[in-house]
Amino acid sequence: MMRTARQRPPTGSFQVMSWLFMRVTGLLLLVIAVFHMFWMHFIIGVEKIDFNTIVSRWTGPHGAFWRLFDVMLLTFAFTHGINGATNVADDYITSRGWRVVTRTALWILWFALVMMGLWIIYTFRPDMPTPFK
Amino acid sequence: MVLHARHLKIKRFNPEKDTKPWWGEYDVEVQPTDRVLDALHEVKWHHDGSLTLRRSCAHGICGSDAMRINGHNALACKVLVKEYKGTITIEPLLGFKVLKDLIVDMDPFFAKYRSVMPYFVNDEAPPERERLQLPEQRDRFDDTTKCILCAACTTSCPVFWSDTEYVGPAAIVQAHRFIFDSRDQGKEQRLEILNEKSGVWKCRTIFNCTEACPRGIEVTRAIGEVKQELLLRRF
After folding, report:
1. What is the pLDDT of residues A54-106, one digit of tens each?
2. Which of A2, A16, A92 sits opposite B195 (nearest CB)?
3. Same structural domain for residues B119 and B159?
4. Contact B115 A11 (CB under 8 A)
5. Which listed CATH number (1.20.1070, 2.60.120, 1.20.1300, 2.60.40) goes with A14-123?
6. What 3-state DSSP class applies to A110?
7. Which residues in chain B touch residue A20, judged by CB atoms under 8 angstroms apart?
8. 20 to 30 A from B34, CA-CA: which of A3, A64, B82, B96?
9. Helix axis angle, B219-232 relative to A14-38, nearest 10°?
10. Taking CB atoms and an 8 Å cutoff, what residues of chain A touch B231?
11. Is the Cβ pair B195, A15 closer than 8 Å?
């Protein structure tokens, strides 16, 4: 049941800020994703992308820029994707319990993969042990 | 008077007899300029008296005969049979418990309506005459004064179908009418209510509500203006 005005605790700014976050990052993502595609396809060329491309991208003179660029691309795209998936889950899952399970699982997946991404982007060294070298 | 045969398909449900809803099919003779409500009257008065529906003024003002006609919410008294080709399919509004045939339980709808404090709030002593307002100040919320609480918008909203906690477009329209009224002082309280998880942020700007409104209210715009107001007061 809806509560009356008097019983309500103050709502804080989580809802409004997450709404704003999605709008602002959505616009940024549009620019970042298009630039990413343009850069990888037309400047570098898909057939030339390999381990060394990433090494020169992250350790070159503009390494700090590219690491930040990739962090933004990863977090914005994945946050928007998971947010969309939770909305789809809300549309199709009618049981409250399963909704909570699905939403929780999706945000755990989000947290785990974003953390993995951040970890690799910011700890990457060309000489680190890797099976792909 | 030229009568035309029209085929009606009406979703029927009597909780005392039926375990699940079923489709009743009726052939009625109506004029093309008759309203869908007239066709329903034809069924009720001459074919099957057990058909149950709400209607009061029958002139698009009371808002009691909102229903789903060929998949779109409308007031049965405000649409003509000639606007529909072939079979006219009529169902009760989606998202509420069906009490019988085309009658749904509107209690949750009015509970949400009441939750946004849909009344004038002003603790100052009333002036000798009326509380004055400039025409421009009145125009600010003119659109949302037109709401007749028929629930066509709320029950056309996919977000509401999947989450009945959502306060819904109609309640937001009612809140908008007072939030932007220069004479009202309950703005902050109403904005707090609509800032909750079940409030305006649930809206995904699908625009079904705007399309469904029989009064032509720009519902999605009103919701957007409330969102903007909530956003601007943070900065």
Report:
1. 899 999 899 999 999 999 999 999 999 999 999 899 888 988 899 999 999 99
2. A16
3. yes
4. no
5. 1.20.1300
6. helix
7. 231
8. B96
9. 100
10. 16, 19-20
11. yes
